[in-house]
Amino acid sequence: MTDHVSRRRFLQATAASVATSSLAVGAPSAKAPFPASFAVHTGRVRSPVAVASENGKLAVQIAVEKMIAGYAPVDAAVAGVTVVEDDPLDDSVGLGGLPNEEGVVELDACVMDGPSGLAGAVGALQNIQNPAQVALKIMRHTDHVMLVGEGALRFAKSYGFPEVNLLTEPSRQKWLEWRERRGTLDKWIHPDENTVGGKEWFTQWKHKTGTIHLGAVNATGDVGSCTSTSGLAFKIPGRVGDSPIIGSGNYCDNDIGTGGGTGRGEANIIANGGAFIVQQMALGITPTDACMAAVRRVVRLTKQKRLLDDKGRPSFQIKFYAINKAGQIGSAGMYADSYARCDENGAVLADLASLYHEKIK
Ligand code: GLY
Fold first, then answer.
1. Range with the lowest mean pLDDT among 60-69, 115-124, 193-202, 211-220?
2. How confident is residue 131, by pLDDT bands cut at 50, 70 and 90?
3. Which terminus of the chain faces fewer neighbouring Cβ atoms within 10 Å, N or C?
4. Ligand 1 centroid from CA 207, angstroms
5. By alpha-carbon position, which residue is closest to atom 5 of ligand 1?
């Protein structure tokens, strides 16, 4: 099947699956293989599908289970992302995220709903563990798209989100170490300064970002998507990346599909990766090729020498993810890596297509 199918043909192909979609699965089981009831659905013409960044294997499974249970794709995407936000071991999202340079965790997130064409987003939100759920509330209960900082916090609290300290002890230790090693012009001194390679250690944090993007398409071809992050490690307070920017870290169009990105947010804000990918797919390009076109766009738009390696290539990672309305999944990155996907065969990590074939630190 080509990526670009007519709506009529698509609906014919999925009619059988819609008829069985009320056979809902039970509550998703943490890190369990696909529930047996999912197999009931694998006989359908096609199941709901989801794509996510590498840290989203469980999240895509949950999103697909939720769509089978009748959740809208955007709600299924948020349900999947919530599990990653709640995971203290993922230091790039929600609880346990690496903090800003003052040691405060600041979160960005957004959601987009294909059928309504609505979106919601939060930027630089502190002390709230599930920013994607707050973004969903903004989308559903206000005429705005984005709230930031103190206003976003007050909004979240008005809906009963509890304030929590998101800085876990391992993330606090990384922040303390970063602060002591970051330079020679400040007054912080690391005890091992003269024996351990401070510069080398510091370099690994230069572009350290992590994020989850999750795109979801249900059995009738409705789409929804979500992105959530703690952003660039040790950022300047108030820095907002691509993740909550509709059109950059996340985009979906119910006639076409979903697109989103993770990696260096400054590059993706300029490239408008999410919207660009969706527009590429509207031209009939496959999801993977659309993601690769976005990678090439980032390369073309990266002109500053300080962002290039000695071969003239961008010295940072950026990765894109897409699903078209027909349920075809794709992903591509600047450098080799993997991504998470879930279809009727269950959730797996797979290699993404990469412009440069080596891995980047
Ligand atoms: N892509 C995540 C960020 O740069 O904040």
1. 193-202
2. very high
3. C
4. 9
5. 231
